[in-house]
Amino acid sequence: MRSRLVLIVFLIFTSFTFQSCEDNDDIALPVNLQINDFIWKGLNVYYLWQADVPNLADNRFPNQEQYKSFLSLYTPEDLFDGLRIDKKIDRFSWIVSDYSVLEQVLQGVSKNNGIEFGLSYKPGNTNEIIGYVRYIIPNSDAATKDIKRGDIFYAVNNVPLNGDNYRELLSNTDDSYTLSFADFDGVNFTPNGKTINFTKTVLSENPILINKVISSGGHKIGYLMYNGFYSTYDAQLNDAFGSLKAQGVTDLVLDLRYNGGGSVLTATRLASMITGQFSNQVFTKLTYNAKKSGNNVNYLFPNKINSTEINSLNLSKVYILTSQSTASASELIVNGLAPYIDVVQIGDLTFGKNVASITLYDSSNFSSKNRNPNHKYAMQPIVAKSVNKNGFGEYETGLVPTFKLKESLRTLGILGDASEPLLSVAIGKITGTSKISRQTVPNEGINLINDSKTLTGRNEMHIE
Questions:
Q1: What is the distance between the alpha carbons of residues 55 and 287, in angstroms, rounded to a whole number?
Q2: Contact by Cβ (8 Å): 337, 413
Q3: Are strands 152-156 and 176-184 parallel, antiparallel or unpaired?
Q4: Which candidate in 99, 124, 352, 364 could, as Cys together with 378 as Cys, close a disulfide (CB 3.0–4.6 Å)?
Q5: pLDDT, tens digit, 9 for 90 and up, residues 12-67
Q6: Quick check: 340 and 266 in contact, CB under 8 A?
Q7: Long-range contacts of 289-298 (CB under 8 A, 24+ apart)
C-alpha cells in the first residue's frame, strides 16, 4: 500500500512537472509573436552581456502567459533595443528585417552609388556637416561621374546636411539622389554650383583597392590598400600577397584607414600572409558569455586557405595606416600581431571595437538551416570579446598610433602615391628619412563624426 501511494504521488508530481515544461517551452506561439520569441531566445543564449540584462534572465518569466504578454508589448526592433545593455557599452549589435541584405553586407555587397565618404562638422560649428570623398569604388555609378577623392559635398537633394538630418538623408532608400558640392579654402566652405545625380546599383566591392610596389632608398616597399575583410575575396588577397612576394618586397605598408572590418577568419589569414613564421600559434582568443563558454576559441595563424598554401612574407615588422574608421577586424590585425612582430601604426586613433558578432536566424539552433518561413528577420548581436595572445583587449577607446597624423581636407593626396601624407610618413620611417615625431598632429586634421560604411552597417568583426 505504501509503495502504491508513493507511486501515485510520484506520477502526480511528474505530470505537473511535464505540464509546466510544456507550458513554458513546448506550446507554439502565435505567428505574430514568433519574431519576438526568436529575438528573446537568441539573445538569452548568445548575447555577451546576457547576465547583465534582467529581462534576459532564465527565470524572468514564471509561465508562458507572462512571457507572451511581455513579448506582445514590443515591435521586433524595440524589443531588440530594449534587451541590449547600455548603448555606451554595446554600440554594435543590430537587427534586420531581411537577412538576405545582412548576408550581402557581410560579404561587401550592397546597394551603393560607389562613393565612400567621411563626415565632419564644419570648423567652429557643432551642427552643420560636410562630407568628403575618400575613394570611389571601381565599376560603380560614381566611377562614371565627375567626382574624385577630396571632393566636398554639403547637401543631399538640395537639403544642407546637419546633425539632425544627415543619417536620414544619406541612408535614404531611394535609388538615386543629388549631391551639391563646395570648395574649401582652409577656413570657409563655399558652394560652387556643382551638383551631380548618383544612382545606386548592387555592388560587390573588391576590398583590394591598390596593390603595388614602391622602390625607395634601396627598399622594395609593398603597399596594399585593403578596405574590407570579406572572406569571398580571400583567394584574391592571397594572390595579391603572392604578387608582392614574387617582386621581392622588403617591407609592407598595409593601409587599413577606411577598413571597417569583417570576418575574423579572414583576419587570421591576413596575419599569416604578413608573417608566416608563427603557424598554429595563437593569433586571437574569443571569449563568450557563461552560457556559451564552451564556444571559447583560440584562432591560430593558419598556413592554408582550404587546400591552398598561404603566400607569406615572413616579415618581422609591418607598417599599418589607420584612422578613426579603422575598426573591428582591422584592429584585430594590429592587436593580434603586436605580441609577435613590430607593428608601427601611423595615422589616427582607431575606432575601438574589440568585440565580435554572429548572425542568428530563427531556427531551432539559430543557424541558417530550416529557418522560420514566416519572416526574414535576423540578428547580428555581440557575442564575444577578443584579446590577443597576451590577453590584451582593452582598446574600447581605440588603438593609439605610434606616429599620429590626422588626414587633412586640403592635403588628402592621391591614394597609393608616394607623396600622399600617411604613406609618405611610412616610406620615410622605412628608409630613415622621415622626421615626424610621435606627437606631431597637423592643425587641420579632420574630426570624423561618421562615415559611409558605419552608416550602412559595414563596420563589423563577425564570426563565420
A1: 23
A2: no
A3: antiparallel
A4: 99
A5: 333 333 333 334 444 668 878 999 999 999 999 999 999 999 999 999 999 999 99
A6: no
A7: 289/46, 289/47, 289/48, 289/49, 289/50, 289/51, 289/383, 290/51, 291/45, 291/46, 291/50, 292/45, 292/46, 292/383, 295/384, 296/384
CB 268 within 8 A of CB 285: no
Pairing of strands 152-156, 129-136: antiparallel
Q: Which residue has the cell 617582386?
A: 247
Q: Which residue has the cell 552609388?
A: 113
Q: Which amino acid is it at 31?
A: V
CA dihedral 69, 70, 71, 77 (to 10 degrees): 150
Residue 66: the pLDDT is: 96
Residue type, 22: E
Q: Which residues of 293-331 are buried (b: 16+ CB within 10 A; e: fewer)?
A: eeeeeebbbbeebeeeebbbbebeebbbbbbbbbbbbbb
Q: How far apart are CA 171 and CA 156, in angstroms?
A: 11
- 116 in Cβ contact with 228 (< 8 Å): no
Of 362, 360, 343, 337, give the one whose Cα is nearest residue 281.
337
Q: Mind listing the pLDDT tens digit for each residue in 263-306?
A: 999 999 999 999 999 999 999 999 999 999 998 999 999 999 99
Length of the chain equals 464
Question: Cα(48)–Cα(247) distance, rounded to whole angstroms?
Answer: 45
Contact 318, 337 (CB under 8 A): yes
Integer Cα distance of 122 and 7 in angstroms: 80
Find all residues with CB under 8 Å of 193, minimum gap 6, and list them: none
CA distance 388 to 267: 13
- State how far the Cα of 71 lies from the Cα of 434, in Å rounded to an integer: 61
CB-based burial of residue 142 (10 Å sphere; 0-12 exposed, 13-18 middle, 19+ buried)?
Answer: buried
Under 8 Å between Cβ of 141 and 199: yes
Give yes or no for a contact between 400 and 394, defined as CB atoms under 8 angstroms apart. no
Residue tagged 524572468 (cell numbers) = 60
Rg (CA), the chain: 25
Residues 50, 51, 56, 59, CA torsion sign: positive
> What distance in Å separates the CA atoms of residue 49 and residue 289, rounded to the nearest whole number?
7
CB 206 within 8 A of CB 184: no
User: Taking a C-beta distance cutoff of 8 angstroms, is the pair 336, 388 a contact?
Assistant: yes
Cβ proximity of 71 and 309 under 8 Å: no
